[in-house]
Amino acid sequence: MKKIKVEEIDWISRLPDSILNYIFSFLPFKEAVQTCVLSKRWEELWLSHPVLEFDRSLFDGGLRDPLRSNNYNMETNKEYRWRAKELFSALVRNLRKRRKGKETLFPLKKLALEMDFFNDFQLKSLLDRCISYAVGCNVKELKLIFNCSSTYLWYNPRQVIFSANSIEVLELKGWKLELPRRSKVMLSSLRKLILIGVYAGDYMMKNLVDGCPLIETLSFSACSGFKSVDVSGLSKLNEVKLTDNHQLEKLVIEESNVHILSIGGPARPHDISSGFCRDLISLSLSDIPNGWISSAICENLTSLSLSNVSKINKWLYYQISKLPFLEYLSIDKCSISSLEISSQSLKTLMILGCSALVGLRINTPNLHIFEYRGGIVFFSIDVLALSKFSLHLCCPRVESRWYLHEYGFFEPTQWYIKYVEFLAKLNDFSDVLQLQFEMGEDAIVPPVMRKVLSSPILTDVKHLNLRLDTFPMCWSITKLADSLLWLAPHTRNVSIRYGVLDESTFKHCIEEVKLDITDEYYQGETNSKSYILKGVDIMMQIDALCGDAVF
């Protein structure tokens, strides 16, 4: 029998460029790269893709045990290096084809690389070429994240990156920045600079700051090598963030328009200029001595965040009253025993993890959002109405008659009495209440306690949301729902966020129940399902969803 030869036709290549580009624009970068094997036309289109992003999964996918953070051996190390070299070789070809002579045929908007960096000459050479070609393609955003196991592996780049006039956003991690004595940094278009775990000497840092006249955002985290940062005279500078920079001793921000300042971490500057205070509207301080905070406070502040700051009880009360525009206040893990806050302008208040706190007085008539995480304390609040009220209560729980916790000793009955009294004070302030506990058992008021405690407690709450953090012990949704509805019998909506629910029945009639059920696998992947249940047969719907099964 005579064989008939069928001519293969590449229909994709015959599509108009406008249609191919339209399809291509919807593809994530990883899928866009995979399409290159379909036809030559797709490979040509990849050249026009404005964003090139390579995350760690492209390098070490399938090489790591998900249950172990660092488990490279000789074979996986070899495979990783081979993948990196192959990928960078392809990237070099891509970037090289984007230019013809001095003309850029296909501009590059963003290049992002995240990988573990090895001391390999060939790999470094390919990386140098990638960066040089990217700069030649007038890249606007450059994000190069290198995870180094040791400081001697820090990547030392070519000088071309310091004279890239097209770069507007530059984010670097795991780099060693050095500059010859007679060289200068000229990043005339740079607006945002983020350095993480970068080494740079004082000479390099001074040139880096001076060479960015249009800089708007500076963020240095866990960096070393420089002892001072002077950003004076940068008229466009709006935000400065300095976190845990080793060896940094002095910060100067004179004659600038900085509006947002964040300073913190165990390694922080001890000498800080205060000439910038008049323009600050947002201030975030962590691990800062109390004596310096007063000089940093500006009457124009609208946002203030304090973390790990001690002895601020009286200071905070008097300072807050002097901030007529303050709208946001966050106090996190501060060593304070009592706290009194009075403000006419405050709209959002967050008090989180202040373990020594025993008393709280709040006089903020215009407060809209209040979030509290900690133990049960003496509580007095004067507000008109809250749109959101979140409570993450730490329930002391041990296998004994007395409960021991960082917030003190409690007998079980005493804790529930304090818990109910605490909630009773919140009834008038918001019709939406969000409760958060570590365990499902923590949210259940035992039936024996309900007989001696007054109810209803939260008569005005219309929407009750409960979030549980960790894997449960032995508890049932029946008891949980009964307890919640005993606290808020008139609620119209109950939302329970959790990953495991057991057999359930509802003994109260409510209009709506929301169940969020999440499976979490050992690889870290999750599968979430949400159910909105309505009608008189809510009990049957819950039983049908849950039954005796564990989700």
UniProtKB/TrEMBL annotation:
PROSITE patterns: FBOX. InterPro entries: At1g61320/At1g61330-like, F-box-like_dom_sf, F-box_AtFBL13-like, F-box_dom, LRR_At1g61320_AtMIF1, LRR_dom_sf. Signal peptide: none annotated. SMART domains: FBOX. CDD domains: F-box_AtFBL13-like. Gene3D superfamilies: 1.20.1280.50, Ribonuclease Inhibitor (3.80.10.10). This is F-box domain-containing protein.
